[in-house]
Amino acid sequence: MSRVKEFNLPDLGEGLTEGEILAWLVKVGDDIELNQPIVEVETAKAAVEIPAKWAGRVQEIFHPEGATVEVGVPIIAIDTDPGAGPLEQSTTGAPTQELPTPSAASLAAVEVAPAEGMVEPGLIGGAAPGGRTAVLVGYGPRNAPAKRRPRKGGVPAAEAATPAPAVPAPAAPTPTSTPAPAVNGNGRAGGPVLAKPPVRKLAKDLGVDLATLTGSGPLGSITREDVQRAASGTPAAAEPLTVAAPAASAASFGADREQRIPVKGVRKLTAENMARSAFTAPHVTEFLTVDVTRAMKALDRLRDRREWRDVRVSPLLLVAKAVLLAVKRHPMVNSTWAGDEIVVKEYVNLGIAAATERGLIVPNIKDAGRLTLRELADAMTGLVQTAKSGKTSPADMSGGTLTITNVGVFGVDTGTPILPPGESAILAFGAVRQQPWVHKGKVKPRLVTTLGLSFDHRIVDGELGSKFLRDVGDFLADPEAALLAWT
């Protein structure tokens, strides 16, 4: 049994097909332990440290940092018994002596005589290109010089093989009349005729020579009408030959002023998911502008409480709570289209879109509907911190059922978000701004935000989507009253 074992890139979950090697945590000659992290790999979802399957000594590293490796390909070799002595370099015994390679000149000087009965190249039955035997169809080989058909428009092969005289005698010029070249389907002399196969068949059936026609189709191609007109003897209307004016040369810039960014990892997965979702689920987006002044005041009171002083409290926390309560009132929003059935889920894996250096990822809080407000706040804080550090595991980004994207942190009022695959709704939370608002019959400055809800119209119709969005807005407009009314 071999001491050296090759460690293949494993499938880290969610159908991973490849990963980029970000950093090697060991080098050749290092002694490693079982389950010691040896390499950091960026998958399509996150950066993951992979532990060693065996203890031993690093014998060889097959791929450098920055390389993209497919799942199942060896990435490192480990000597699992380094104390047993040096590894054998060869198993064949005495080393073999390499023979000198003959030069091209010496090979060219060797003349090999044909064996008895062998036909020389160039004769029927002799060697032909590709190792074939030159044989006429239906006949056996015969010892006669092979003849080649003259090429179209060229000279016969026999004439081409005859050497020309050293000084050719000049021929006296004979005045001849040159016939006008035939005009083909392009409207130009010479060249192939542009016509589709059905048109060519029609011309053959009607006995029309396509080379004599001037096409009226795109790029001068010959159409059925052209053929039928020629067959009936009706002359085609003369059309002036238009020559396209040379286009003005556009300003061109060098490649040194362009940047090419490889599409891989998180960005590649996001692109694939968004394209699949956008062209699979029929999206509908509704908007709602809400006065959230009372909700912001409730957050201030929450921060002042002693047990909440060390907790990160943000407006996104109240939005998440509002979504979870609205799902209980409208459970169909938390479902998945499964072809011939709709799967309504009694748990909410709440996704929170997070912008990271590697791109947008959407980790989710498992069974978020069962958490208290304090537990939800702690889970959201840990989720965002882990995502920004690039340590989110693939398991944390799988199984989402409903998502919130906080575009307000970028100063954006709202958006039309695209559904993550497998989900039926996503809520965009816009920036909270002070705006003039009619409050108790008077125009006053109030804190206002805009919500945007995109949903899968196969599952969520306009009425259901509107009611769900309205409930989220009602909670943010007056959290205390909504809690009293719904719980």
Descriptive report:
With 487 residues, the protein is of the alpha+beta class. Helices cover 23% and strands 20% of the residues. It is built from ten helices and 19 strands. The chain has helices at residues 104-109, 157-161, 197-206, 224-232, 265-278, 293-304, 315-329, 373-388, 462-477, 479-486; strands at 4-8, 18-24, 31-32, 37-42, 47-51, 56-61, 68-70, 74-79, 283-291, 335-337, 342-344, 350-352, 354-356, 359-361, 364-365, 402-406, 425-429, 433-439, 442-456. Strands 9, 12, 15, 16, 17, 18 and 19 form a seven-stranded mixed beta sheet that branches. It has a four-stranded antiparallel beta sheet with strand order 1-8-6-3, with no helix packed on it. Helix 3 packs parallel to helix 4 and helix 7 crosses helix 9 (462-477). The radius of gyration is 39 Å and the shape is flat. Mean pLDDT is 78; it is low at 90-99, 105-120, 133-149, 152-167 and 172-183.
